[in-house]
Amino acid sequence: MSYKYLIVGLGNPGSEYAKTRHNIGWMVADAFVEKHASTFKDGKGDWYEAEVTYRRQSILVVKPTTYMNLSGEAVKVLMRKHQIASDKIIAIVDEYNFPLGKIHLKTVKSDGGHNGVTSLLQNIPKADFSLLRCGIAKNFGPGELVRYVLSPFAETEQRTVQEMIELGVKALEAVAAHGVLKSMNIINSWKTSTEKIDNP
After folding, report:
1. Termini Cα distance of the chain
2. Residue 146 above 90 pLDDT?
3. Short-list 26, 24, 22, CA closest to 9
4. Dihedral sign from CA coordinates of 87, 170, 157, 151
5. What is the domain count for the chain?
6. CATH number, position 122
7. Which of 183, 3, 171, 1 is nearest to 101 (CA)?
8. DSSP for residue 189
9. Cα angle vertex 54, ends 48, 60, to 5°?
10. Which one of 18, 154, 155, 187 counts the least CB within 10 Å of its CB?
11. Which of 128, 99, 130 is nearest to 199 (CA)?
């Protein structure tokens, strides 16, 4: 089957990681697939996969099971298997430099200190794929980054997290409908209700 886009939710497999900040990519991917009446199944490799049809376009959604730091290895195999160009890849990632709830779409320029993105850059020949970055805030001190990203969202953050997931799904739909470049300006102006209060 020919796919218009390859959407990659970055995260870590296992129940202990399921609700952590680092797994927001998986959460958005899950919500997108569920909204469009599909389900994940074991892929023929180190990933889960689901096929979504949106506006008569076929989209492959995957969640690599290689753990975050080796995510690119699964994506490299999928690109070759399905002949998907790198500019048709959208990776959903967590971003601690953004306030909780902010989403932002951009064409990759660097890894930004994110090990999952580093792996993608090492395995995708041409660095023109896109990142849908989801803000997880920066509420940690020196030396606490790993503990922070592998911790679950607080109860008080759940409403904003759910809004961010919903915006992430809308962003993926926008890209599928209009392409990355046309969608950026629209998507990058969206705010959760929390952001609207903090930055009216």
Report:
1. 45
2. yes
3. 26
4. negative
5. 1
6. 3.40.50.1470
7. 171
8. T
9. 25
10. 155
11. 99
Return the half-sphere exposure (C-beta side, CA atoms, 13 A cut-off) of residue 122.
12
Rg (CA), the chain: 16
Looking at residue 199, its pLDDT comes to: 52
DSSP state of 88: G
What the block records as the tokens of 94 is: 């967590």
Give the per-residue pLDDT at 113.
79
Distance, CA of 144 to CA of 84 (rounded, Å): 37
Q: Where are the alpha helices (DSSP H) in the chain?
A: 24-35, 71-82, 115-123, 145-149, 158-178, 180-187, 193-198
What amino acid occupies position 92?
Answer: I
Domain span at residue 145? 5-198
User: In this structure, which amino acid lies at residue 89?
Assistant: I
The two three-digit tokens of residue 64, written as one number = 């690599």
- Tokens, residue 184: 């950026």
**Residues annotated as part of the active site:** 22
Number of DSSP helices (H) and strands (E) in the chain, helices first: 7, 7
The pLDDT mean for the chain works out to 94
- Whether 101 and 149 have beta carbons less than 8 Å apart is answered as no
Output the DSSP codes for 93-133.
EEETTS-TT-EEEEE--S-TT-HHHHHHHHH-SSS--EEEE
Q: How many residues does the chain have?
A: 200
Question: Is the separation of the CB atoms in 130 and 82 below 8 Å?
Answer: no
Helical (H) or strand (E) element with 7: strand 5-9
